[in-house]
Design a protein that fits this description.
homodimer, 2 domains, 5 helices, DNA-binding
Chain lengths: 168, 168
DNA sequence: CTGAGTGCAAATTATTTGCATCTAC
DNA sequence: GTAGATGCAAATAATTTGCACTCAG
């Protein structure tokens, strides 16, 4: 429903720039895949992306999707994310800063967030253990507003994990 | 060097209990694998575990290691962890509470930690976005004390990621 | 004895790669 | 025209599974 990520044309030009800079070529397939990627909600699987790209251009092979995603990642436009048990998802990196994820274990919805307080504590905790942190990942799994049952007196047990709903 | 996790005999009995409860059998291979698992530093790959188990009993196949690890996980004694780019590691769950991980990107060392302040913030952040958190994962990647170069004026860039050293 | 467990090899799943062909520049 | 790109199929890598055989209880 709501457009979570504005399909900024900046990314297209970023890719063009990165392609030009490296002496690479702009092809029909790459356009289709990039288009499908940008039109996505921000997090797509390879399978999803292949289907979407094929809608625009039937002659796109899985291998090219993988190769293009790697290219996008190298250009800093996409980032692979491996959530819990689901296949690798690629997210749009629109020059945005680092962020972490809330993942609904029922509907699969992914919400991004960032919290400076947590980041500070992470750095502090690591330093206390002799580590210099260069990166981190944090994922919170649970039920989103829509999937949460309305029952008031819920136990916090390990119950809530249903199989994710697939959206394709 | 230092014994990170005491090879508590409790776990052996826990497994026995879980095996008995389910009407399963205690076999030579399972003993070897459990022994190797408990003798580990707390985080092992399947490859590692297979090698260690074979030291005790050469007739252990990979399939049995996988099957036994699944059994251990179902009994609540082991937990699979997928760190950054490394193969799945299994960690000993000695009835210990939840914890998160510091991972050295150079030597592969894994240090566990827990921080109530961070956990509280996680819950709060999630609630603010309409999520009820049931679980989470957090990994901090960086250099441990031993691997950190002594240079004072380091840049925080994306430099630090070398390939992990394997220990086998 | 008998059902659970095991080894092996084949099957799966996710992804990469070699190669002949094609095409953007 | 040529280096880079693509499709296909074969190759990897990690893990699971079918099946005949073995063994713990």
């Amino acid at each position: 429903m709501r457009p979570r990520v504005a399909p900024s044309p900046d990314l297209s030009s970023s890719l063009s720039a990165c392609i030009a800079r490296r002496g690479l070529k702009s092809t029909r397939q790459r356009q289709a895949i990039l288009g499908a990627f940008l039109a996505s909600s921000g997090h797509v699987t390879v399978v999803d992306l292949l289907a979407r790209a094929r809608a625009a251009d039937p002659g796109v092979s899985p291998a090219t999707v993988y190769r293009t995603l790697r290219l996008l990642a190298e250009c800093g436009l996409a980032k692979p994310q491996r959530f819990h048990g689901s296949p690798t998802m690629y997210e749009i990196v629109a020059g945005r800063e680092h962020h972490d994820h809330l993942v609904c274990t029922r509907c699969g919805r992914v919400v991004e967030f960032e919290d400076a307080r947590i980041e500070r504590l992470q750095t502090a905790v690591a330093r206390a253990r002799g580590f210099t942190v260069t990166s981190h990942r944090m994922e919170l799994y649970g039920l989103c507003r829509l999937c949460r049952p309305a029952r008031p007196g819920r136990k916090a047990g390990s119950a809530g994990r249903r199989s994710r709903a697939k959206r394709r």
